[in-house]
Amino acid sequence: MKQNWLPRTVLFISAMVFIVAGFSSMAFGKDKLKIGFVYVSPIGDAGWTYQHDLGRLAVEKNLGDKVSTKFIESVPEGAEAERVIRDLAKSGYKLIFTTSFGYMNPTLKVAKLFPKTIFEHSTGYKLAKNVGTYMCRFYEGRYLTGIIAGKMTKSNQLGYVAAFPIPEVIRGINAFTLGAKSVNPDIRVKVIWVNSWFDPGKEREASEALIDQGVDVITHHTDSTAPVMTAEEKGVYAIGYHSDMSKYGPNAQLTATTHVWGDYYTKVARQVLDGTWKSTAVWGGIKDGMIKLAPISKKVPADVVELVKKTQKSIADGSFHPFTGPIRRQDGKLLVKAGKHLTDKDLLGMNYYVEGIIGSIPK
Amino acid sequence: MTLDTLMNILVATIAAGTPLVYAALGELIVEKSGVLNLGVEGMMLVGAISGFIVMAKTGSLLLAVSCGMLAGAIMSLIFAVLTLTLMANQVASGLALTIFGTGLSSFMGIDYTSVALKGAREIHIPFFSDIPILGRLVFSYDILVYLSLVLLALVLWFLYKTRAGLILKAIGESPRSGHALGFPVIRIRYLAVLFGGAMAGLGGVYLSVAYTPMWVEGMVSGRGWVALALVVFATWRPMRVLTGAYLFGGVTIIQFHIQGFGFEIPSQVLSMLPYLATIAVLVLISRDKKLIRLNSPASLGITFHPENN
Amino acid sequence: MVFKIEPRPVPSRQMKYFSPLIAALLMLVSGLLIFTLLGKNPVNAFYAFFIEPVNDFYGIGELFIKASPLMLIGIGLAIGFKANIWNIGAEGQLTMGAIFGGGVAIYFNGSTSFFILPGMFLAGIAGGMFWASIPAFLKIRYNANEILVSLMLNYVAVLILSLLIHGPWKDPQGYGFPQSVLFSESALLPVMVEGTRLHAGVLISFAAVGVGWIFLLRSFIGYQLQVSGLAINAASYAGFKYKKMIWIGLLAGGLTAGIAGVSEISGPIGQLLPSVSPGYGFAAIIVAYVGRLHPGGIFLSSLLMALLYLGGESAQMSLDLPSAVTGVFQGMLLFYLLAADFLIHFQIRLKSTSALKGTRP
Questions:
Q1: Residue B175 C-alpha, separation from nearest chain A C-alpha, in angstroms
Q2: Of the candidates A25, A190, A323, B227, which lies 20 to 30 Å from A72 by C-alpha distance?
Q3: A239 contacts A257 by C-beta, under 8 angstroms
Q4: C-beta separation of A259 from A290 below 8 A
């Protein structure tokens, strides 16, 4: 007996150690949800990626030590993205947000290889068992800013600096135009395409060209603050996009359409932690707190602010849809009859201008 | 199109052409000395971010411009050491400089992406700026636009009125005879390359501090290469550099106006215009081989080693 | 002590092989400095940069995927560079190759024919060569500088792709987003190793290294290219031969870039997107030069360059190093190599000992 106690004790102790270690590692592993974010550009100080990073920071703040987050910035769309997303999944990130349209197919490819990892892809349209999509109804904000622009313009000419002719951008231009026309039927909207998401030089040149042609309210669907800055310099009004750009144009900016991701990201992370996450296609707007207007400038008269607030409320409670008829196409043909409004499917594939826009969509 | 619009286009054109004036004038001096530095794009980028950082930190335009020029000059010094002292291939070294400058500038600019900046303001001269038409056309720019014209005058004076300019051109034609006459060929070329770097840096500062004013990775977006093309276009004459730069600026600006007026041309085609125009002009100028041979420095791009003759 | 720089009577053979090593060594030292300055442990940083990306099969596959277009284009460019033809439009030629090849895939979408893939490659080659023939033609006919023309055409090619992708080639089911349909199976390169993305296009690149080897080092044309490169300004060199060299020099780059373009879209991407290359056409210039225009060297340097890219990503992920560090490294590597080349053609001696000799070539 005497010689036998040692091996047994060793066995016992090591078994205990293994069990404790196993439990604790499981506990630790379960505890911290590693969340990865893939960004298409540097974060910077304003813009698309900046807003998403605000969302990431909100997750960290809301969920504290239950999560740890990591972002990879400036990831080119296409073949490069697949490797980055895969590396994140391989390194144990169990929830991965891919925040640009071009990541759609790479995300799906990686999702197939990592069925236990959950992916959320922004602005795309393809779902899978472990891939959800999410985006914002930017057009709701655009409609509201259109009201302000339509009221504030003296020349009745509004300018729009646009990146690429995809439905999301065209939808915004149309909503902005409809909003402006709802308060000022004589409005004309001039659009300049710069063929780049992010090129301050071009955005500035385009804004200048618009202003020189008589436009006195500028808005943009590009990523830099150049249009707002140009408006500030030239003494016309501007409506920002993505982020509140008032510090770039304290006198020029009337308001801005901003998108807010923090609540959504937190909700998704909670669902993943609780194990209740399901693949869905989320298209959130004012109602969900995903679209917000930046503080409206003091220059905007109180009755206009009132009108905007009222419209915002009726969009939020669903009693009003920005694309409610009668809407005519650019060539005057009736698109939507009075009392009807466009469906989500119509909106998703939008590839035409409404009446009041000057120029043509690049084909 | 009203007179006012036309005026606005002209004013915008001059602003768009100014960074090209700087970079191309600098490269012209470099090439006159017989050296071909293809690193303009990289030097402009590093100049742009250096100037931007200084402007953001100190708010002093003078400091920003000086530091941007210094940064451009330091970049060109790398090139000069490689090609003039170590006798590396000029084309390869220039390309390397651009690749390095692109990386370095985005590295330096990490904390400065889309930071707000109070840029150089258009100056307003009482009375003069208020003269109709002329006042707008002549007296309504930021100070860096005027500086580019001052530098143009200086380059003209240097090249055509000074002995030093004569020596520079002689060395560009034949470094061997220059060397035989006792001129320090390598030292003169060093100075020319450094001047080119400083000017490219200044062009970059103009973009990031006055034109946009903002820092974004790769924001020079090909202007350095256009500046190189302009030197050929100008057949190595400073006045024509100015013409070429404004022409290019004009094409860039007009494409946006065309869109704004609602012409049915795909915007991508319009965006191609500046590049296609550059090629077309290059072809027009270069087809006359005699013209090129008469004006281009004969030793352009060829490595010279004083011991090796 | 005064040092004197003196040309070698003949280029040093040893230095030809040593100078890349010296350059690599200098880069390691600089890397050490940079990492330390950024407050990172250099050992961790080096591990993240050079080991972590390739510590599994998938990583090695990625290395070759990334190196594949670089070595392919690098070989093509080297042929031109040898003859002093500076084609820096490979990015545009790659894009054109992708447009032509992608056009075949889109037009025959759904077809299961075996000939789709070869057809795509033939079209891609045609596209790349077509785009390269423009600077060649303009140089021969109008004496236009091929550096500037080929460079400007890069921008034009990308805009043409954008025009097509936003217009006629847009996926009709794609909600208007700028992308083509996903290519059908017959238009995709097969994956060679299960669990990786390593596609058959890599084999084409290996083959190109072999062909380039024979062409550059064992053929008469290769010899002529070198001669024309050396004698670029000599009036004695027959004009028509020089024209031939311009054609060969530029078309070789266009051909390989065209193949690379098709390999990208039928390999890792699988469709046409507004951007098909993250700058391979420019990086290949470095690859060709670091590989000292020798196919074997290009093979190695493309792997090194690919590793730098992957390392940049992995360093960002595990150490929060900014991605821009990669670009700085690439530029430095090139500088060091150019500087180290000096030792091939020159030697450094003490003045007193060399004063007596005075050898001149």
A1: 40
A2: A25
A3: yes
A4: yes
Confidence check: pLDDT of C273 > 80: yes
Q: How confident is the model at residue A222 (pLDDT cuts 50, 70, 90)?
A: very high
Tell me: domain C62-320, CATH 3.90.1200, correct?
no
What's the pLDDT tens digit per position in C245-267?
A: 889 999 999 999 999 999 999 99
* C177/A363 Cβ within 8 A: no
Q: With respect to residue B303, please indicate whether it lies within any of the assigned structural domains.
A: no
| Confidence (pTM) | 0.85
In this predicted structure, the answer to whether residue B1 has a pLDDT above a threshold of 60 is: no
Give me the domains of chain A, ranges plus CATH numbers. 28-136 (3.40.50.2300), 138-258+291-358 (3.40.50.2300)
Range ranked top by mean pLDDT from A319-328, C289-298, C337-346: A319-328
Q: Which residue of A has its CA nearest to B6?
A: A212
B222/C contact by beta carbon, under 8 A: yes
More confident residue, C96 or A20: C96
SS3 sequence of chain C: CCEEEEECCCCCHHHHHHHHHHHHHHHHHHHHHHHHHCCCCHHHHHHHHHHHHHCCHHHHHHHHHHHHHHHHHHHHHHHHHHCCCCCCCHHHHHHHHHHHHHHHHHHCCCCCCCCHHHHHHHHHHHHHHHHHHHHHHHHHHHCCCHHHHHHHHHHHHHHHHHHHHHCCCCCCCCCCCCCCCCCCHHHCCCECCCCCCCECHHHHHHHHHHHHHHHHHHCHHHHHHHHHHHCCCCCCCCHHHHHHHHHHHHHHHHHHHHHHHHHHHHHHHCCCCCCCCCCHHHHHHHHHHHCCCCHHHHHHHHHHHHHHHHHHHHHHHHHCCCCCHHHHHHHHHHHHHHHHHHHHHEEEEEHHHHCCCCCCC
Better-predicted residue by pLDDT, C290 or C310: C310
Cβ–Cβ gap A87/C159 under 8 Å: no
User: How many Å apart are CA A338 and CA A325, to the nearest integer?
Assistant: 4
